[in-house]
Design brief:
- The complex is a heterodimer.
- By secondary structure, chain A is of the alpha/beta class.
- Chain A has one domain (2-226): Rossmann fold (3-Layer(aba) Sandwich), CATH 3.40.50.720.
- Chain A has helices at residues 13-24, 53-66, 89-117, 137-156, 175-180, 183-191, 201-212; strands spanning 2-8, 29-33, 44-47, 67-74, 120-125, 162-169, 223-226.
- In chain A, strands 3-2-1-4-5-6-7 form a 7-stranded parallel sheet, with helices on both faces.
- In chain A, strand 1 (2-8), helix 1 and strand 2 form a beta-alpha-beta unit.
- The longest helix of chain A is centred in the middle third of the chain and has 29 residues, at 89-117.
- Chain A is globular and about 50 Å long.
- The mean pLDDT of chain A is 95.
- Chain B has 7 helices and 7 strands.
- By secondary structure, chain B is α/β, with parallel strands linked by helices.
- Chain B has a single domain, classed as 3-Layer(aba) Sandwich (Rossmann fold), CATH 3.40.50.720.
- In chain B, helix 1 (14-23) crosses helix 7 (203-214).
- The longest helix of chain B is centred in the middle third of the chain and has 29 residues, at 89-117.
- In chain B, strand 4, helix 3 (89-117) and strand 5 form a beta-alpha-beta unit.
- The chains are: A alpha/beta, B alpha/beta.
């Protein structure tokens, strides 16, 4: 069976840059996303709503029958910027279903191929927001959850040759970021970044590529911040 | 108007019961739990299944109409030991509803009173498992989520005089812990052996720290995760 790298949410933003970067490096990439990718996007695409658990399980099982998914990049996620008073339970459930549930389902689908190969790479796209960000109750919570799952999976699969690592991007210049942040907010965000620029999606893809590399096999359970120095001097995210 | 009423979730047993007992002398305690207290308690018990959204909303509307809470302990939680490969959607959803969503609903319910008072103390039950624990995909995710919530709420509510902190217990000798970690299992034995203090914690070890974080005196601490673990997390990667 053809060995492939599963990328969730690879049609836009950070995910799109990850898909391109990995394809350029010779990966067979399978992108699962609710939205279609650009016409010139490399690799394979399956339209899947990862927040719809029964449908997602079925689609991922079919993919696992078609490809040996020895690498997974759990990138799919949504942000809803909201003061804590205004978060609804319905929105909470929907964001959790995608940001946490999607990662669980995708990793479960790939696990048999990884175990069969005695090799696997799991990369979870977490966020600097695990250290706290106002008006991001559910988003920061799901990203903190993803970081904790990364460490749990690193321990649980350490003996199987499977590594699990996380990336903590600071603000990345994507459509989502621009939608959720006014120009005033962007200015204050920039002021807090020592490098005085937003990340671009390729900055994150670089870190993904590193963790997916077969030679990165002794690195597991780690969070790599890709933040232009923004996390420096802050309390570590215990 | 009194400011001495504390809302504690899951205070009928385990760590929550120890918290209710320790707070009883100083505050009126309202305990939201699915089952009545296992031991006689001075706390006002209100039965509710905090996984159930409609029931939780109704219950919170009721208790917040009767009490003005300026202190909240989001303690309730469930934990199961399951390999990732066997983790089902029902367990995931129930764990997230109880361990995280209930905390959000409780905070939202007490926030108007805290905002009006210009004062609040929130303590969230985190866990050392946020640093990673085998067979705890969902439990660790909920606790890592709780730590992040703690920091986000601390930042968001800081200018209202509301302090939000978390405690992160290591291995505490409770029914929940024993259910998920059978005392004779090799993993449990290995873990207890790894505790620098070579003992499990008691529920009251946690309750004492919660009582401090709830106190008026804990005024300039916010967004912190206090590990109560007999030294187990020392040397662990906290990033």
């Amino acid at each position: 069976m053809l060995e492939a790298t599963l990328v969730t949410g690879g049609s836009n933003g950070i995910g799109r840059a990850i898909v391109r970067r990995l394809a350029d490096e010779g990966h067979t990439v399978v992108n699962v996303d609710i939205a279609a990718p650009p016409a010139d996007s490399p690799g394979h695409f399956r339209q899947v709503d990862l927040a719809d658990k029964p449908a997602a399980r079925a689609a991922l099982a079919a993919l696992a029958g078609e490809f040996a998914l020895t690498r997974v990049v759990n990138n799919a996620g949504i942000v809803r910027a909201r003061p804590v008073e205004q978060v609804t339970a319905e929105e909470f459930d929907a964001v959790v279903a995608l940001n946490l549930g999607g990662a669980i389902l995708a990793t479960q689908a790939a696990l048999p191929a990884m175990r069969a190969a005695g090799f696997g790479r799991i990369v979870n796209i977490s966020s600097r927001a695990v250290q706290g960000r106002p008006n991001r109750t559910v988003y920061s919570m799901t990203k903190g959850g993803l970081l904790a799952m990364t460490r749990t999976w690193a321990l649980e699969f350490a003996a199987d040759g499977i590594t699990a690592n996380a990336i903590g991007p600071g603000p990345v210049d994507t459509e989502t970021f621009r939608r959720n942040n006014s120009l005033t907010v962007v200015a204050s965000v920039l002021a807090a970044i020592p490098m005085k620029r937003l990340a671009i999606a390729d900055d994150v893809a670089q870190a993904v590529s590193f963790f997916l590399d077969a030679r990165s096999g002794f690195i597991t359970g780690q969070m790599l911040h890709v933040c232009g120095g923004q996390t420096l001097g802050l309390q570590p995210a215990a | 108007m009194s400011t001495d009423t504390v809302l504690v979730t899951g205070a009928s047993r385990g760590i929550g019961a120890a918290i209710a007992e320790r707070l009883a002398g100083e505050y009126h305690v309202v305990n939201l739990d699915i089952a009545p207290p296992v031991k006689a308690s001075a706390a006002e018990f209100v039965p509710v299944d905090l996984r159930d959204l409609a029931a939780t909303r109704a219950c919170l509307a009721d208790v917040c109409a009767r009490h003005r809470f300026t202190r909240l302990v989001n303690n309730v939680g469930m934990s199961s030991a399951v390999p990732l490969a066997e983790l089902g959607d029902d367990l995931t959803e129930a764990s997230i509803a109880l361990n995280l969503r209930a905390a959000l609903l409780c905070l939202q319910a007490v926030l108007p009173a805290m905002t009006e008072a210009g004062f609040g103390r929130v303590v969230n039950m985190g866990s050392r498992a946020a640093l990673g624990k085998e067979l705890r995909t969902v439990y660790s995710a909920t606790k890592g989520g709780m730590h992040a919530l703690t920091r986000t709420w601390a930042l968001e509510l800081a200018d209202r005089g509301i302090a939000v902190n978390a405690v992160a217990p290591g291995m505490i000798d409770t029914e929940l812990f024993r259910g998920a970690n059978p005392p004779d299992s090799p993993i449990t034995r290995k873990l207890v052996g790894a505790i620098p203090m070579k003992r499990l914690g008691t529920p009251d070890d946690v309750a004492k720290v919660v009582a401090f974080l709830l106190s008026d005196g804990a005024a300039y601490m916010t967004g912190q995760i206090v590990h109560i673990c007999g030294g187990l997390s020392v040397g662990a990667v906290l990033e």
